[in-house]
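In the current project phase, the collection of sequences with tokenised folds has grown. A sample record is quoted in full directly below:
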Amino acid sequence: MPHSGGGPNRYLRLVGDLPDDVEIRGLTLPGRERRRTEPPGATLDEVLSSLATIPSPEVPTLILGHSLGATIGLHLAHALGEHCVGLIASGQEPRDGAGWLSEHSSDEDVLRLLELGGDMPSVFMADTGWRTAILDNLRADLRLGAESVERSRGVRLDVPITVLCGCEDRLIDQEALAGWSAYSAAECEVHVLSGGHFALFDPVNRPRYVEAIERHFSVIHAR
């Protein structure tokens, strides 16, 4: 589950070292990558309905979500029920209310989000077309994120949650990360890595993500 404004293709580098028996699927929201020509915007119910397109949803499934993707991933994991083996929440603190941004925030405040995340080349901001597309996608994701947060109250998983975050992430309150435990009746582990908001794409941290994925699946093999 990708971050705000992003698509899943970039994440293939992160999970490319997984064993061959792990099938990788990525969520592509309207307005990006293969759906770039579609108007941005999706409701949480529309995202959840995409589970019906998975040919074998009964196969043990692990959700890995980064930033906005972690918030959405909580709902996907819950919808999968007994077929979900766990949730990896990356670069996101648990939220029980509105964030400091909304879809109605000014362009400057929305772009400040990109600045704090440290992942947007300035060349895109200089191009009017790209700037407009990026802002439209981010506003759509802020709307989806707000809905996901509002509906997360009372959601509780029966599987472990692993939380991973960069120690220099300027979008996250590190002390709040342990709050993910409120969403699971099982264990919740928090691991702080080197780097900022997109520490997961640093090759140094890649083994930590692969290790976390394999650890969740190893529980199934043990059973």
Observations:
- The helical segments are 12-15, 44-49, 68-80, 107-117, 122-126, 128-150, 206-222.
- The chain has a mean pLDDT of 86.
